[in-house]
């Protein structure tokens, strides 16, 4: 895929996530954001906190990789086998439940509205990273996989993985919000 198209598409997707969380979740009170349809499921805040934990890792690694001068910027993005597999696993269309690492699982956490603001800040950082990615070699293997750091994703794979993962869990939070609306209307 052409780099410009790839980055513009990701930018639009991240902007949509930022807008969705700003309009649908940020105005809600913390008690509503902590609503859980069942004890095992995540609240809206837990979905966003899970993403914050990943963003704390991946945004920093992406910033480091993008700060390195590229021998020449990519013209096209090609996905590695590991990248394709990682992205497919977290796509929102993939309804198969995935187990998360204990340190990334916010279930039963005491969370407040600061989680929403942190998420929005991470989105602003990601938008800036996508802008700086225009000058990078997106096919360079540079981003260690969070749970197994010996494996590395290309910069392009990592960018798409992060965005797809965020879309998955923001959609999950939206389903919890819809369940809350149903509960409140009864």
Automatic annotation (TrEMBL):
Residues 25-173 form the DinB-like domain. Pfam families: DinB_2. It comes from the Bacteria. InterPro entries: DinB-like, DinB/YfiT-like. This is DinB family protein.
């Amino acid at each position: 895929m052409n780099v410009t198209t790839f980055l513009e598409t990701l930018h639009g997707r991240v902007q949509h996530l930022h807008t969705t969380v700003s309009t649908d979740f940020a105005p809600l009170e913390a008690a509503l954001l902590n609503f859980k349809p069942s004890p095992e499921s995540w609240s809206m805040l837990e979905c966003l906190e899970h993403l914050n934990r990943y963003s704390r890792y991946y945004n920093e690694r992406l910033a480091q990789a993008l700060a390195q001068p590229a021998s020449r910027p990519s013209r096209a993005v090609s996905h590695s086998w590991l990248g394709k597999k990682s992205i497919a696993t977290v796509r929102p269309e993939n309804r198969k439940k995935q187990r998360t690492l204990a340190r990334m699982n916010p279930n039963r956490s005491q969370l407040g509205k600061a989680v929403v603001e942190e998420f929005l800040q991470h989105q602003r950082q990601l938008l800036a990273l996508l802008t700086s990615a225009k000058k990078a070699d997106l096919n360079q293997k540079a981003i260690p996989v969070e749970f197994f750091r010996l494996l590395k994703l290309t910069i392009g794979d990592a960018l798409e993985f992060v965005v797809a993962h965020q879309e998955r869990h923001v959609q999950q939070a939206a389903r919890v919000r819809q369940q809350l609306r149903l509960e409140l209307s009864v």
